[in-house]
Specification:
Blueprint lengths: L29 H12 L3 H27 L3 H16 L4 E5 L7 E5 L8 H14 L18 E5 L15 E6 L3 H18 L2 E3 L2 E2 L11 H4 L2 H8 L5 E2 L4 H5 L19 H15 L1 E4 L12 H14 L4 H17 L8 E4 L4 H7 L6 H16 L12 H6 L7 H11 L7 E4 L6 H4 L1 H6 L3 E2 L1 H4 L2 H4 L6 H13 L3 E4 L4 H13 L6 E2 L3 H7 L7 H17 L20 E5 L4 E2 L8
Parallel strand pairs: 4-5, 4-6, 4-8, 5-7, 9-10, 9-12, 10-11, 12-13
Antiparallel strand pairs: 1-2, 3-14, 14-15
Helix pairs in contact: 4-15, 5-10, 7-10, 11-20, 12-13, 15-23
Pfam families: O-FucT (PF10250)
Keywords: Carbohydrate metabolism, Fucose metabolism, Glycosyltransferase, Membrane, Transferase, Transmembrane, Transmembrane helix
Protein name: O-fucosyltransferase family protein
């Protein structure tokens, strides 16, 4: 047990590791080798030998020319051409089919690399009859998605609270939480840890009006302010606003308080050596923005303040919790055929996400124009800078394209979730929703969103406040039997950690291999049995990755064990050696 001490100096250090990888030159195309062989065999007999002799002579000439170029130091003249040619071949954007039987001689056609084109509608058309045949099946994957681990599990650690009282405050810490809901959550939790480290009094964080989220909500509109203050009162002193006498010192203008430009991922030592002296001198300091300003790898006793803040002190405001509880109850009723269980999906297919990904779907010129407008509106020339090359096909092969609702539906059906499954979609405004949501509803008739699950009257108070709406989605997803993440970001990372904390250390989250999906969805002739096997393997892989301990460079908000949780061994005994308790 870590005693509560006035000394906050930790011994942990942040480390960063970098890796380098080298890639060898790709082999020559088998298709081109086949074409050369076919060409030489077409004349037969002695012509073949003559052709081979000519080819051998040509190769010798090429070798001599290249050698002379190197000897005469002419390589620099050809370097740009060689580099561009090598990159084009490496990226797979010049794959050739050669037709020797065409009228007029040889015709070269461009062939797209596997996984680079959006062909999911064609795959769906092929597989839909097989999905229909398995509708209303008796073996819904919702009942058997996760393999229980009876030998050990993790549970939130109990914490003893000291009655010694807090040390004298060194000053007031003011932070500005920017971004969306979960980026704000990260800033708040890190601020609690830093305030404890500095013996500072934390002022309720200020929410910055983000140009993307456009939400004017204050802390108390999203989180329960009274509960937050009470939950932390034995560890960190929290006040709603700066006292008048301190504010007068800065001409009653909080912007006049010195803003410390703290570098990202700073260590506890940095705060003690650089921030604390200024706080003691000025009596108040401001850090804006504060997102990602505390390192992941810090001593366990600092981590536990993050745990306390995220899992113990931060709960949503009453209006959010009240409606969210109603929505959860309705989802449970919808899933009565599956024992009240349901699937939640974080679907990132809003227009801004599709535009930012620079991926192409099946909307043609109209889609391209809409995406160009959206990119210019949101990022003002970022994608038109000189030297910026957009490669939609490469993005898709790399797994960087947002999954469409159709692709999510096919993936879940392949994993064994049948049409009786109750599905909740957590999302903003889906791009071209009428078109893209239709096949998902076809596969899952019991599909709900916050707009269908709650009445317009219930949602009225939340409209125009994206963070409050995201809080509703977060709560419904938190209590689902299966959570599906499709694009990364703070929302799924926080949810996975919160679910691990809630479900014995297991995230109960499907994390699809999007590179593999790109290849499968680009295979219109794929067989249903093969597709199902691939999807079920992906589900089992997500199950095996459900239990994971935090690595030094990883985020505690995604991997709460062992800092926020204790291992429970068989027989119900608790292994307290895995976590230092917070006094």
């Amino acid at each position: 047990m870590q005693p509560y001490s006035h000394s906050r100096l930790g011994t942990g250090r942040s480390t960063a590791a970098t890796t380098t990888a080298s890639t060898s030159s790709p082999p020559s195309s088998p298709r081109l080798r086949h074409c050369r062989s076919k060409f030489s065999q077409g004349t037969g007999g002695s012509d073949t030998r003559v052709g081979a002799a000519k080819q051998s002579l040509l190769e010798k000439v090429v070798v001599v020319l290249i050698t002379s170029v190197f000897k005469r130091r002419g390589l620099l003249l050809f370097a740009p051409l060689l580099y561009i040619s090598g990159m084009v071949l490496y990226m797979g954007s010049l794959s050739l089919d050669v037709d020797l039987n065409s009228v007029g001689g040889v015709v070269v056609r461009k062939r797209t690399p596997p996984g680079s084109v959006y062909r999911s509608p064609q795959v769906f058309e092929k597989l839909w009859p097989y999905m229909e045949a398995e509708n209303n099946g008796s073996r819904n994957a919702l009942m058997t998605a996760w393999n229980p681990k009876p030998i050990q599990c993790w549970k939130p650690c109990s914490r003893s609270i000291t009655n010694e009282g807090l040390p004298n405050s060194t000053g007031f810490l003011i932070i500005e939480a920017n971004g969306g809901l979960n980026q704000q959550r990260l800033s708040i939790c890190d601020a609690v840890a830093v305030a404890w480290l500095l013996n500072a009094t934390l002022v309720i964080p200020i929410f910055h009006l983000n140009s993307v989220w456009q939400d004017s909500s204050k802390f108390g509109d999203i989180f329960d302010e009274d509960f937050f203050i009470q939950a932390l009162h034995n560890n960190v002193n929290v006040v709603r606003e700066l006292p008048g006498e301190i504010l007068e010192q800065f001409d009653n203008n909080i912007s006049s308080i010195i803003n410390l430009r703290v570098k990202g991922w700073s260590s506890p030592t940095y705060y003690l050596e650089k921030v604390l002296p200024k706080m003691i001198k000025m009596r108040a300091v401001r850090i804006a923005p504060f997102s990602n300003r505390l390192a992941h790898d810090v001593p366990s006793y600092v981590q536990q303040l993050r745990c306390l803040a995220n899992f113990g002190a931060l709960r949503f405001a009453d209006p959010i919790r009240t409606l969210a509880e109603k929505m959860i109850e309705r989802m449970i009723n919808n899933g009565s055929q599956s024992g009240g269980k349901y699937v939640s999906v974080h679907l990132r297919f809003e227009m801004d996400m599709v535009a930012f990904s620079c991926c192409e779907y099946d909307g043609g010129d109209e889609e391209k124009q809409e995406m160009d407008v959206a990119r210019e509106r949101g990022w003002r020339g970022k994608f038109r800078r000189r030297g910026r090359v957009i490669r939609p096909g490469v993005n898709r092969m790399d797994g960087k394209c947002p999954l469409t609702p159709l692709e999510v539906g096919m993936m879940l059906r392949g994993m064994g979730f049948d049409n009786t499954t109750s599905v909740y979609i957590a999302a903003g405004k889906i791009y071209n929703a009428e078109k893209y949501m239709a096949p998902l509803r076809q596969m899952f008739p019991r599909l709900e969103t916050k707009d269908t699950l709650a009445t317009p009257e219930e949602l009225a108070v939340f409209k125009g406040h994206s963070s409050r709406l995201a809080a509703l989605d977060y709560t419904v997803c938190l209590h689902s039997e299966v959570f599906v993440t499709t694009q990364g970001g703070n929302f799924p990372h926080f949810l996975m950690g919160h679910r691990r904390h809630l479900y014995g250390g297991h995230a109960k989250t499907i994390m699809p291999d999007k590179r593999k999906l790109a290849l499968l969805f680009d295979s219109p002739n794929i067989r249903w049995e093969n597709f199902k096997q691939q999807m079920q393997d992906m589900l089992h892989h997500s199950d095996s990755k459900g239990f994971q301990l935090k690595k030094p460079s990883a985020s505690l908000y995604t991997f709460p064990a062992p800092d926020c949780m204790c291992r429970q061994i068989e027989g119900g005994n608790e292994d307290n050696n895995n976590s230092t308790q917070l006094n």
